[in-house]
Every structure is written in structure tokens, then in C-alpha cells.
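Reopening this ticket.

The earlier resolution said the output was attached, but the attachment link was broken on my side. Pasting everything inline this time so it's all in one place.
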Amino acid sequence: MKWITREHPKIDRIACPWLIKNFVDKHAEFIYTHPDKVKEQAKKLNAIPFDIPDVEFSHYEDKCTFDYIIEKYKLTDPALKTLAIIVRGADTDRHDIAGQASGLWAISAGLSFNIKDDHELLNKGMMLYDALYSWAKHLQKEKHTQNPVDHIFMDVYNKFIRQKSSQKKTPDWVKELKQIIQDQVDANLNLTEISKTLDINPSYLSREFSKHFNNLSFGEYIRKRRIEKAIELINGNSYSLTEIAYLTGFSDQSHFTRIFKQHAGKSPSAYKKDIKSKANTNS
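Inline output:
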């Protein structure tokens, strides 16, 4: 069977072919084309369109196309469930839901930057997901450092952090973290890297984050701040929506549109149209 999607893949459009080839149809053929031509070419070539809006194989709520394929074909391998969370975190900029998500995004973005031929990129990307699947299947419990002294040190450190934070109503790291997010909301932020900057254990930071940030997870808060910035830029009327998506840290236009609609209740284009309509009415 032929499958077709948008050109210049990064996460879902590499992960899904790997999943299909290994667990659905080993003879599957994949086609990449211009976003505006996917549906037209799908009909012409009798191919299944995927990872584009308004088709069956796409994103649903907070899940990505990789999740849908697992559900559609009733794939029950526990390793795939683990891999799905990593893919979802990387593909939807929610690096807080899986520690490996930020690494997958970084490597995938680098591959996409270095390799311009989509099918060559797919072949190289297949090796990446082979490795991730092997880790999820056989190596999850292994650690690079097995020294028990390290674990004792971390336990003592965590207790010290908890004791120190309980002495203040608003910890200093909260103020510093808010400033980091404000200054770098368009960047590829993740708690693991931020924890190094703040000199705080990443597990503690992940656990305590929502207590100081409106009961939102790190990913939810980042998306909220990005949409708030996007609204400011739309109101300023100085940038196109494509430029605004880039300036607010979204990996592609469709992801930006989907998240914007979740927060603002309408698409960016509809929001911008309303702004122009109000401006014309008042003039």
C-alpha cells in the first residue's frame, strides 16, 4: 500500500513510516510531496494520506499520528507504548512527558537540517527508531551509571532541596525560571537542560513545577505563554502567521494552528481576520 504525507519530515512523518513498515505493512511505500498537493496526489496515486489535517491518520486531541496508528491496528507491544510517549512529546513540543523526547527532537531536527532528500532522510531515520525501539524493548532499566554511591548522593541532595524550598514561600528558582521562560519562550526549552541552569534535580523540578505555575505542567505552561506571545504579535500586525509560528517556537504551521485554536477558541487566521474587522469598524 502507498502512503503519502507532507515533505521535509522531522518526527511523526519518519516515526509513522517506521511503525507501518515494522508492524502494519512491510511492503508499504512512502511518498513525500508539497503540503498543498497531499490530498490531490493521494487520490491520483491511490495512497493513504497521513499526518495532515482533516484525514483519518492524523492528530487527535493531544495525541499524534503515531498514537493513532497504534490504536487503529490494535498494536499491544508495551515497547511501542513507551515509544509512542517519546514520539508524542517530541512531535508536540511536550518534552516534559518523556525524558527522551527532547533528545529525539534534537536529533531529528539535526538530521532534517543535514539531509535534504526526504527518502534518504527516511532511511536514516528508520535506524534511529530501530535503536529507540530496542532500548524500549530491552534496555529501559539499564543506566549509564550504576554506581550505588551516586544514588545515595542524589537522595541526600533531594532531601536538602526539599528542606531548603520549604523554608520559603516562593523559591528563588521559581523567579529565575519565569525569567528564563519569558526570555526564551520561542526556544526549544526542556526541564532537563533548565534544571542544569538552575542547579536543581530535574525530577524535583518536574514534580514541583505545577505548584508555582498555575497548576499547569511545564509543557502546558510553555504552550500557554507561546500562544499569549503569538496573540501579542498578531495584534501588532507586523508579521505573517508563518513568521509568528516561527517566532513563538512552533515546529510547523499545522501544530501552531492546532495549539492556538485550543487556547484561543479559533484559528490564528480567524483571530487575525477578527482583529482586522474590528479595526475597520472603528476607523
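Reporter confirms the inline version is readable. The radius of gyration is 21 Å. The first strand starts at residue 2 and ends at 6.
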